[in-house]
Amino acid sequence: MSTDLLAVTHLSKTFRGPGGVAIHAVNDVSFAIRPGEIVALVGESGSGKSTIGRAITRLIRPSAGQVVFRDRDIAALAEDECRPLRKDLQIVFQDPWGALNPRLRVRTLIEEPLKLHGTADARARTARVEALADRVRLSRELLGRYPNELSGGQLQRVCIARAIATDPALVVLDEPTSSLDLSVRAGILRLLNTLRRETGAAMLFISHDLGTVRLISDRILVLYLGGVVEEGATRDVFERPQHPYTQALLSAHLPPDPKAKLARHLLDGEIPSAIHLPPGCAFASRCPIATERCRHERPVLMAAGAADQRAACLLVAEGKNRI
Ligand SMILES: Nc1ncnc2c1ncn2[C@@H]1O[C@H](COP(=O)(O)OP(=O)(O)O)[C@@H](O)[C@H]1O
Ligand SMILES: [Mg+2]
What is the pairing mode between strands 6-16 and 64-69? Predict the structure, then answer.
């Protein structure tokens, strides 16, 4: 038995695009999540975050690699073997409007997973629905309403209540605050922090925004073009980012100063196409310090910075990875 709740090894996912063209959405990604841990997956749009989240919750099948949840490779399971897993592995999507059936009352929506996963007694379910509403700080008055009568923030609370209804061991949150007004985002983040303490569930928090994950995660994985370029404890990654991409992302978050402007400029270019992967480092085309070697040789994650911090940059070995 391993101490990891989830261990993803060499995960790859290739989609078929128009005309059968191969889209390399996720390329050889490995990481683990311990019980109760909050791991953030950060990257620009198109970097493969949702694909990883969907593979972990077994909404899609990986093209290669393993997703071992509680010592069982769920990537290899047949569809009908997955159902019992859903109780333990839940996902919250970015768009709460699209995730909820508009014809069902909030009460029924929160009750659904309880029915599905075998809380047989109707009175027990009613009590549980009310307790869940309290837990996600959703006024009980709203239980009788329909989704279109709720705000985006309230709807996302409904989605979170559904996700935690069955006491899952792991919840994947795929940009849960990105579609919400700035004013309600902080409230949802506070709620997730509270839930983590109250429920002990581990979370994979997906976001394109480093500022958001700083508030909530224990550990960060930085994704670029379907591959992990840096990983480490949140504090270490923020204090001493090792990969040039992470450094550029973080500088763009600093208050305006000449250095920050430079960093913003550095990330102006486009992320390369997932159809024609570059032969060397995926970030080389936008990296201000890339060498000729970087364009031909693919870097792997290696120790850099603090203990348990790693970066996939060829320049780390020479200590020349500062932008
Ligand atoms: N069902 C699909 N069919 C074809 N291509 C897809 C599909 N889902 C995602 N992709 C492609 O895979 C890449 C990664 O997408 P995604 O995982 O959604 O990234 P992110 O969530 O980081 O924005 C993108 O190039 C995207 O266009
Ligand atoms: Mg996404």
Answer: antiparallel
Annotate 30-56 with DSSP letters as a single string.
Answer: EEEE-TT-EEEEE--TTSSHHHHHHHH
For the chain, how many structural domains are there in total?
2
- HSE-up (13 A, CA, CB side) for residue 230: 31
11, 13, 50, best to mutate for ligand 1 pocket (most atoms within 8 Å of CB): 50
Q: Does residue 222 form part of some domain? A: no
Residue 255: predicted pLDDT: 60
Domain presence at residue 274: yes
Average pLDDT (2-29) is 95
Please tell me the residue having the least CA distance from ligand 1 atom 13.
25
What's the whole-number average pLDDT of the chain?
92
CB-count exposure of residue 18 (10 Å: 0-12, 13-18, 19+): exposed
User: What's the pTM value of the predicted model, to 2 decimals?
Assistant: 0.94
Residue 172 resides in a domain: yes
User: Which residue range(s) make up the domain with 256?
Assistant: 241-316
